Amino acid sequence: MTILQLPGWADVAAAAQRIEGYAHRTPVMTSRTVNEAFAADVFFKCENFQRMGAFKFRGAMNALSQFSPEQRAAGVVTFSSGNHAQAIALAAKLLDIPATIIMPHDAPAAKVAATRGYGGNVVVYDRYTEDREHIGRELAEKHRLTLIPPYDHPHVIAGQGTAAKELIDEVGALDVLFVCLGGGGLLSGSALAARHLAPECEIYGVEPEAGNDGQQSFRTGQIVHIDTPKTIADGAQTQHLGQYTFPLIQQNVDDILTVADDELIASMKFLAERMKIVVEPTGCLGFAAARARKESLQGKKVGIIISGGNVDISRYAEFIAS
Ligand SMILES: *Cc1c(COP(=O)(O)O)cnc(C)c1O
């Protein structure tokens, strides 16, 4: 068995320096309505305003900036139908690295177009008959490409942690932090930052009720695998945590909470109506969990990471109208 070298706070701090000038320092927003309803001070870290529309740019930029000259020349490969694809394509473009993105044949046309728009070379596969990891490894070997997965990589985790670092640097130590959870890159990185900068902070990961593999893993102490869950939170449809993200979550996170899709829709509407921000369903996970347990937050200083805003606009209109 290989022993993994888990990333730590120093890696998050180094990532912050590496991505400075490339990633946006996203705004922290507040709402008087929320503060009154919660009887708390609530701070929203708005990664929907990050480059390409989600925090994933942070991890991608941190990983690609550490490529050797040989790796840069050969290029990067990844598999994703979502925000990680666009993040890798954009970071690669900024660093002048060729990028190959493996996407399912039925990925939304808008996402394929956005990835191509950033200069990514999109390779399409049939998700019912082909295995994307196998295709990725084959391409990587044949062309000496470096594979950067969406969450289970120390450089990706450290990059994602810079969002919570910026939040706490700006507003001071938090009592509670809510973070959206898919494969755990954002949560494990954020937890490294929060544990260091605000040691007393309670840290919660939040996943969709239909896909609570993280909660099951956290409670049983073993990585639980599930079938692709049916949920509108498409950024959190992961089937399992990773070999890096799981131990970091075990070490640093207080609990994993879940929310139902209708709570995500209610939160999406609230964020649009009251705060004028467009947030994708997955990006609402943290806020939805905070709303559901607001009594326990009275008098506290609460951080919520809004993870992204990439949602097909006609689909969004349907959510808002429902
Ligand atoms: C990827 C993603 C998540 C989940 O992040 P993990 O690092 O996989 O846990 C949450 N929200 C958005 C918008 C995402 O793109």
UniProtKB/TrEMBL annotation:
Cofactor: pyridoxal 5'-phosphate
Keyword Lyase: yes
Molecular function terms, GO-annotated: ATP binding; D-serine ammonia-lyase activity; L-serine ammonia-lyase activity; magnesium ion binding; pyridoxal phosphate binding; serine racemase activity; threonine deaminase activity; threonine racemase activity
Keywords assigned by UniProt, alphabetized: Lyase, Pyridoxal phosphate
Record's keyword annotation contains Transmembrane: no
EC number per UniProt: 4.3.1.19
Domain named Tryptophan synthase beta chain-like PALP: residues: 22-308
InterPro entries referenced in this protein's UniProt entry, alphabetically: TrpB-like_PALP (IPR001926), TrpB-like_PALP_sf (IPR036052)
Record Pfam families: PALP
Family to which this protein belongs: Belongs to the serine/threonine dehydratase family.
PANTHER family named in the record: SERINE / THREONINE RACEMASE FAMILY MEMBER, SERINE RACEMASE
This protein's name: Serine dehydratase
UniProt organism field: Citrobacter amalonaticus
